[in-house]
Amino acid sequence: MTKSGSDERRAFGAEGEVRAAAHLERAGWRVLARNVRAGGVEIDIIAERGGTLAFVEVKSRRARWCGMPEEAVDARKRARLVRGAAAWLAGARPAARHVRFDVICCEVDRFGRWTLRHLESAFDASD
């Protein structure tokens, strides 16, 4: 039995999120939450390190024919993430002194090798 295209895409995206969380942990971040819903928005990863709280959007791609992964984080998506972050912050009240929005781009080449690019402070709440 084969998975539907939608199930395959979901599994591929979930694999990218697992790899992104592992990347953050290797870099000294503490992952506080994954796939959390706040303000009607799903936030892929919320992580903390040294007084900084990062809301991380993960974009996974098998090919670049549809553009660079970060290009999918358009103005509408950024606004939704800012709204979700504000809702999460209102409920969580973290001790972080600085909040930022990162994007982690996960790409797989034709040989199945993953590469990750971490775009720190990719955008801010005024974007």
Folded structure, characterized:
By secondary structure, the protein is of the alpha+beta class. The chain has one domain (5-123): Trna Endonuclease, Chain: A, domain 1 (3-Layer(aba) Sandwich), CATH 3.40.1350.10. 31% of the residues lie in helices and 39% in strands. The protein has two helices and five strands, in the order H-E-E-E-H-E-E. Strands 1-2-3-4-5 form a five-stranded mixed beta sheet, with helices on both faces.
How would you concisely characterize the structure shown here?
With 127 residues, the protein is an alpha+beta fold. It has helices spanning 5-26, 75-92, and strands at 30-38, 41-49, 52-61, 98-108, 114-123. The mean pLDDT is 90.
Low-pLDDT segments, ≥5 res: none
What's the order of the H and E elements? HEEEHEE
Largest sheet: 5 strands, mixed
Strand adjacency order, main sheet: 1-2-3-4-5
Q: What percentage of the residues does DSSP assign to strands (E)?
A: 35-45%
Radius of gyration, in Å, reads: 15 Å
User: How many distinct beta strands?
Assistant: 5
What fold name stands as the CATH topology? Trna Endonuclease, Chain: A, domain 1
Q: How does the overall form come out from the CA principal axes?
A: globular
Number of helix segments?
Answer: 2
Which percent bin holds the helix content?
Answer: 25-40%
Number of self-contained structural domains? 1
The CATH architecture can be given as 3-Layer(aba) Sandwich
* C-alpha termini separation: 44 Å
Structural class: alpha+beta
Indicate the mean pLDDT. 90
What is the class in the CATH system? Alpha Beta
